[in-house]
Amino acid sequence: MTLFVLSGCHVVTMDGARSEHASGYVAVNGNLIAAVGAGEVPAAFDHAQIIEAAGCLATPGLVNTHHHLYQWATRGRAVDSTLFQWLTELYPVWARIDEQIVRDAATAGLAWLARTGCSTSTDHHYVFPRGGGDVLAATVAAASAVGLRFHPTRGSMDLGASSGGLPPDEVVEDIDTILAATDEAISAFHDPEPGSMLRMGVAPCSPFSVTGELMRAAAEIARQRGVRLHTHVAETADEGEFCKERFGCTPVEYLDSLGWLAGDVWLAHAVHLDDAAIRRLAATGTGVAHCPSSNARLGAGICRTADLLAAGVAVGLGVDGAASNEETSLLGEVREAALMARAVGGPLALTVRQALELATLGGARLIGRADELGSLETGKLADIALWRMDGLPHAGIADPVAGLVLGARPPLELLIVDGEIVVERDRVVTVDERAAAVAAARAAAHLANAG
Ligand SMILES: [Zn+2]
């Protein structure tokens, strides 16, 4: 059992009192936090390895609540398009992915995400080409290699173009295949135990690519098996039109009619919400994964984060797939969330600490793990980001939390996940970064050349 203590750093605990220690320590024993406090390391830890962390800022590891890892192989396409144009260009490319491409894309995507302070990531995988092999298992293998805590979801699409949906028929599956594969994936990968490194979720793609029948059946399976539910909703104004024409209601009303507003559901985007929708999300305990960079990249709009928080909705942050957010920096999303909330809601709409809370406690709530993740407290899992704040961009800054949220992305001195070091001095130590980059480039070239 390893025992070490980060010593002399500024500590942002995100505990109940939102305590911060200008100079404090975080002790780690095995995969758990053994102690957190201000001042000198207590004598009880005399025999522990001391890691001098003066000049650094310790925060809880960040939790990414929306992603499509396979998209790492399709970055930089349809760069000036609407969501529906972007999807229409990319679906045929995505139809050619296979397990090797997904493994390479996910490894590079997760390694990069780790570099941006992310210790737990979800993934929403909904493209399962026939003959492509086990692409979901490929993401699981990648997360295991990189060493991140992983909450993949078995996604799906069953509403092809011939039935009035947006995706071409070759990338959709039939409902029986989807439900059987979803059940199998939960059996194969889901670990419900405390400290779990992998929990599954169920995630039909969106109202314009999935039938209501699949939405209902997916929710039934998830609830039988005790896993959470996820989907995209109200991302663009186009989607609102689609729902009005097809279902005669708003996207959120549509989800409500399917039993999809509840405490075990978190929704990606939720940009175009009216006041009634926000009240309904709050009343049902439904969470929102805010993806500011992707929403801006696709010109979709800006999520009403401040209104959601004021109503009591749990909000986390997501980078979304790299095809609509080539940066995919989770710390970057913290900055974007703060700036965008203020751009539309005024200077007091979201504080820098609230923005950081979205990416830590907020994310932990969305994935149902606020009891284990999202704060630095004794007994919680040892998922810690240690940021170096004494270099050129940050040295001397009055408030290190403002430096982290509003300033340049600081070097990541350490990323600790489940008590293990994943990033050290801004390099991933679990996989070879150079090899991961070469493999990802090969995967992207393979997709480009096959078209
Ligand atoms: Zn998405």
Commentary on this structure:
The chain is an alpha/beta fold and 451 residues long. The chain has helices at residues 83-94, 99-115, 135-146, 175-189, 212-225, 237-247, 251-257, 275-284, 292-297, 305-311, 330-345, 352-366, 400-406, 433-450; strands spanning 3-12, 20-29, 32-38, 49-52, 56-60, 62-64, 118-125, 149-156, 201-204, 228-233, 265-269, 287-290, 315-317, 384-388, 412-417, 420-424, 427-428. β1 (3-12) and β2 (20-29) form a beta hairpin. α4 packs parallel to α5 and α12 crosses α13. The termini are far apart. The mean pLDDT is 97. The structure holds zinc ion. Zinc ion (ZN) binds next to loops.
Can you summarize this structure?
The protein has 14 helices and 17 strands. The protein is of the alpha/beta class. Strands 1, 2, 3, 4, 5, 14, 15, 16 and 17 form a 9-stranded mixed sheet that branches. Strands 6-7-8-9-10-11-12-13 form an 8-stranded parallel sheet.
Global Rg: 21 Å
- Can you give the helix content as a percent range? 25-40%
Write down how many β-strands occur, each being a DSSP E stretch of 2 or more residues: 17
N- to C-terminal distance: 51 Å
Secondary-structure-derived class:
alpha/beta
Question: pLDDT below 50 for ≥5 consecutive residues: which ranges?
Answer: none
* Envelope shape: globular
Please indicate the percent range of residues in DSSP E strands (runs of 2 or more). 15-25%
| Tally of helical runs | 14
Q: What integer is the average pLDDT?
A: 97
**What's the main sheet like?**
9 strands, mixed
Ions, cofactors and other ligands present here are: zinc ion
